[in-house]
Amino acid sequence: MPGAIKASFQTKLFLAALTSVVIALAVAGALFSMAMRRQTDERIEQTLIAEARLAADSLARGTPALRPGSWQADVAALDAEADRIGDLVGARVTFIAPDGRVLGDSAETLAGIAAMENHAGRPEVVAARQSGLGVSRRYSDTLKIDMLYAAVPAKHPSIAVVRVALPLTDVRHQLQAILTATLTALGLALAGAAAIGWMMSARIGQRVHMVAQVAARYRVGDLTPPRLDYGDDELGTVARALDDSVQEVGRRLAAQARDRARMEAILAGMIEGVIVVDPQGRLQLANHAARHMLKLDDLALGRHYVETIRHPAIAELVASALAGRSPEALQLSPPRDPSWTIVARAAPATSGGVHGAVLVLHDITDLRRTDQVRRDFVANVSHELRTPITAIRGYVEALSEGDATPEDSRRFVEIIARHTLRMERLVKDLLRLARLDAKQETLELVSCETRSLIQAVTADLASALEGRGQRMSIAIASDAETLRGDSAKLQDALRNLVANAISYAPEQTTIRVEASRLDGRVTVSVSDEGPGIPEEDLSRVFERFYRVDKSRARDPGGTGLGLAIVKHLVELHGGEVRAENRAEGGARFTIILPS
Ligand code: ADP
To answer: Between the CA of residue 564 and those of 308, 557, 559, what are the distances in Å?
Structure first.
């Protein structure tokens, strides 16, 4: 609520300024009026004393003394003198005889004077006689009001003391006037100060409001630097310093967010699972791979690793990393999926003397599988080579003994030649697979005539076909007369499929090669009337050295690599090859080329 902030801040500032001005003015006013009152009081008193002295002096200079015979007349003359002086000084003037009788008073008639009390005991009179000056404030019995008296001795034969008096109400009036003037001045000063204070507090309030608005914007996350002039004073300096700090913090936060995004992108892209555990054992971070491997859900973050990682061996690894140790890597299978193999490594992540832990999970299932395949392959190759080598060695030994008949010798040599041929085929197929594996064979894609492709294969295998009395039937759909591919490689693939059909189908049967177009893709299928392939082996016949009938492994005809080569060659084209059994019996192999 910036408005409320402004109002309250401005009002507070104004009230503070006003209060201090009021206090300052009140103190100054009080001191001033006190000083003025004292001064005025003193001045009035001094004036009264001076007037008393003047009156006494005037008496001494020419006023005749009382004569015994004309007492009444002389007192009247003295009273008249008192009235005259009283008029001159504007105060009550009283003449007092040495015995205390009043001989003249400007405020009384002659009759009144006669009735007046003896004044010898009046404090100012007593003091005047003793010390030459008496001043007193008190209630006048004669006038029935408070009076200020000043009395001095007179050098006059009949008058001992001259007293001048002023009603205290007069004095108070004068003092009141001073007070009123002071208060008026103070009131004006206060009004002026209030106006100036209000204007100043409004300006400062406005600036504070401006800074508060920027702060409110920062609070909701908008850190765009404001184009504001904060001013050159302390408020401006503070606002600028805070603004600079916010901008700096903003820059650091942005850099941190960038780093974090980068790190998250890296972690998300990693195939290794990464888990970070804080020193209290709570999961701070788990990337996608780790969640997948350990089957963690989104709620696992922030929870203790013992509750979430439900694999005792991994939990133990994390525990020792949290204790600051670097445990040995472990090989294990994730929970509920024993077909996987994972290598788990944990290391302490130390910061500020406390240990968190980083756990890295490496899925080596594929590595292990590849390793297994490689080992199987080596075993298979050795096995495949052992059969012909053993046979060749046996017949070579038999020949070298020299006791074989010429007919046996010819038969032995033939057998040796067949096994040598089989070994040559095996090595040739192995080398081809190796080349295909290493992607050393490149495609030369051209538009080919489907029919001439198939006929070239038939021509290659003509003698084998003839040998087994088999027929070839070729059917090419009108939309599949041409296809796009590497003619030599497609011929190799087809030759393998037709050769298999010749080998596995009985004699005097028909082998069908059909080409058609399906969904824009050309398919070429080879069907035979042979025994077909058991359903459970259909998916595996393309594996290296996989044979349906293991006893045929001894058959020197096949290497067990033909279909693996076909698969490679078709996949090189971006196509696929499928094996299936025909409903009417026999196997069908279909090559599907991409459109
Ligand atoms: P091979 O050199 O043994 O023929 P292939 O890789 O060409 O090796 O074939 C693998 C296995 O698939 C063969 O051993 C055979 O059991 C089976 N097979 C291949 N083609 C046919 C077919 N047309 N009819 C029946 N079985 C076949």
So the answer is: 45, 16, 10
Output the CA 87–ligand 1 centroid distance in Å: 158
Contact 321, 355 (CB under 8 A): yes
Q: What pLDDT score does 2 carry?
A: 45
Question: Whole-angstrom Cα distance, residue 340 to residue 235?
Answer: 66
- Pull the structure tokens for residue 199: 């204007």
H or E stretch at 229: none
**Can you give the pLDDT at residue 215?**
87
State which of 494, 542, 547 you would mutate to test the pocket of ligand 1, scoring each by most atoms of that ligand within 8 A of its C-beta: 547
Three-state secondary-structure class, residue 337:
coil
pLDDT tens digits along 284-305: 999 999 998 888 888 888 999 9
Q: Whose CA is nearest to atom 21 of ligand 1?
A: 500
pLDDT of residue 554: 44
Q: What pLDDT, on a 0 to 100 scale, did the predictor assign at position 443?
A: 93
CA of 541 to the centre of ligand 1 (A): 7
How far, in Å, CA of 455 to CA of 432, rounded? 24
Binding-site residues, ligand 1, Cβ < 6 A: 496, 500-501, 504, 528, 530-531, 533, 541, 546-549, 552, 558-564, 587
CA atoms of 51 and 86, how far apart (whole Å) = 9
Which residues in the chain land under pLDDT 50? 1-4, 6, 552-554, 556
Backbone angles phi, psi at 475, to 5 degrees: -130, 120
Tokens standing for 182? 């002071």
- Secondary structure letter of residue 553 according to DSSP: G
Q: Which of 525, 535, 548, 565 to mutate to test the pocket of ligand 1 (most atoms within 8 A of CB)?
A: 548
CB 295 within 8 A of CB 335: yes
pLDDT at 17: 85
Tell me, what's the pLDDT at 319? Answer: 94
- What contacts 438, CB < 8 A, 6 or more positions away? none
pLDDT for res 535:
92
Ordered alpha helix ranges (H), 132-233: 168-219
Name residues whose C-beta falls within 8 Å of residue 595's C-beta, 6 or more positions apart in sequence: 519, 520, 521, 522
